[in-house]
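Structure in, sequence out. Go:
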């Protein structure tokens, strides 16, 4: 049995029976069979259904958000915002999918030559618990609009949300088999990837999970997209607007209780302004309200599981032993960890070199601009970086020097349906969202006509 457990109260919310081998086989048969007809539907037919999904999300956002908060501790106002963002993704692809996948005519020596963008079949999505709806919808909306079929293996601790996502598509009127949630544990994933009815796989998760999935998919010569961890830097240059930068950095690190791959996890500040910046930063973090995730005033909930809080506590303590200093927080109570700030963090410490998944951040200083860039790039991760400066010409000049998949100037790194999303190095490969995302799982078919004279 798979359990859904409230991390705030410790209460078991619901138990789910794992699918048997026969039931998995039936689900994949249903998906494969549906693809034969779904791929022939028009963009208008798909768009109408996707707009229905957006409407369903908006109509019942309280229901879906509450289950999300109960399952993984997300503050309720942030859970509602997540549901609303999923509706936006549905509407975006309903409106833009046909344009993103329109035939591309290319002039050659042929009488006619072009590229068609055609669906490939059933795509397996392996998704994490930290954004239980958004991570899935940013895959599902483009995949279904492209004419593909989606099957979901969600994180075991958010299975109620996973079933709710399937419910959204059912209520929207999508034909049976277009999108299915597979209630199963990780041990079944390898066999499903190897199944010939699965044509590709996308994963959002950890480096070990990504390596395992990529290895299996590669062995079967199947396309994979990996969105893995991140250790995004927040770089405060000496001319930054301190008031605005502090407010943005607090959001970047502590929203979703710090449980985000794109959260700002390394605070890198010019040494000439560090005292002024940190005085206001500590003040604002101290004012963040912790408590019951269902309370609308709560900004910091619990971590999704107690073991995650224990892991983060160890990273903090290891960094303190190595010479860092806790200047705020540091205490844990079961799955709750106080918002925590560490000073004097260096690149050799856990809080700098490892991904920290929760409400804690380490502070590092620099003197020369070149040093700041080196501190950003020294990381094994390459998901995104935020830089804060009033000099836009300077920002434009240094953007190419960062190795990450995204650079945000005077803003936190965030995903947007209109922009490609993905990383470099151990943060993964491939892109989600925008035109790039919908084209990850299509056959870019070259077509060439030559007429005999």
């Amino acid at each position: 049995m798979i359990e859904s457990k409230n991390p705030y109260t410790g209460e078991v919310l619901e138990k789910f029976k794992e699918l048997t081998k026969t039931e998995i086989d039936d689900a994949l048969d249903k998906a494969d069979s549906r693809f034969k007809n779904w791929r022939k539907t028009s963009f208008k037919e798909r768009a109408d259904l996707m707009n229905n999904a957006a409407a369903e999300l908006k109509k019942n956002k309280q229901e879906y958000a509450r289950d999300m908060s109960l399952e993984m501790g997300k503050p309720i106002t942030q859970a509602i915002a997540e549901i609303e963002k999923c509706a936006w993704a549905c509407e975006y692809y309903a409106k833009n999918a046909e344009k993103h996948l329109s035939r591309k005519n290319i002039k050659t020596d042929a009488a006619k030559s072009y590229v068609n963008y055609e669906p490939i079949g059933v795509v397996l999505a392996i998704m994490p618990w930290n954004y239980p709806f958004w991570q899935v919808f940013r895959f599902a909306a483009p995949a279904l609009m492209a004419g593909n079929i989606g099957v979901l293996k969600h994180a075991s601790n958010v299975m109620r949300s996973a079933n709710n996502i399937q419910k959204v598509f059912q209520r929207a009127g999508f034909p049976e088999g277009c999108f299915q949630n597979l209630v199963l544990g990780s041990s079944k994933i390898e066999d499903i990837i190897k199944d010939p009815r699965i044509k590709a796989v996308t994963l959002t998760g950890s480096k070990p999970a990504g390596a395992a999935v990529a290895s299996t998919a590669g062995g079967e010569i199947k396309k994979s997209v990996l969105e893995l961890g991140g250790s995004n830097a927040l770089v405060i240059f000496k001319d930054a607007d301190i008031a605005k930068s502090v407010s943005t950095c607090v959001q970047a690190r502590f929203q979703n209780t710090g449980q985000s791959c794109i959260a700002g996890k390394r605070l890198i500040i010019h040494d000439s302004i560090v005292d002024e910046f940190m005085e206001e930063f500590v003040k604002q973090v101290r004012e963040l309200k912790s408590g019951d995730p269902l309370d609308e005033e709560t900004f910091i909930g619990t971590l999704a599981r107690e073991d995650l809080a224990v892991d983060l506590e160890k990273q903090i303590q290891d960094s303190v032993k190595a010479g860092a200093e806790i200047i705020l927080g540091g205490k844990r109570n079961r799955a709750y960890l106080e918002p925590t700030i560490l000073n004097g963090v260096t690149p050799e410490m856990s809080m700098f070199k490892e991904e920290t998944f929760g409400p804690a951040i380490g502070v590092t200083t620099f003197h020369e601009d070149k040093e700041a860039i080196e501190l950003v790039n020294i990381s094994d991760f390459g998901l995104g970086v935020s830089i804060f400066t009033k000099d836009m010409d300077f920002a434009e000049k240094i953007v190419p020097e960062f190795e990450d998949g995204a650079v945000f100037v005077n803003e936190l790194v965030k995903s947007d349906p209109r922009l490609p999303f993905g990383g470099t190095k151990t943060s993964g490969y491939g892109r989600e969202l925008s035109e790039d995302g919908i084209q990850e799982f299509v056959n870019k078919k070259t077509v060439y006509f030559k007429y005999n004279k």
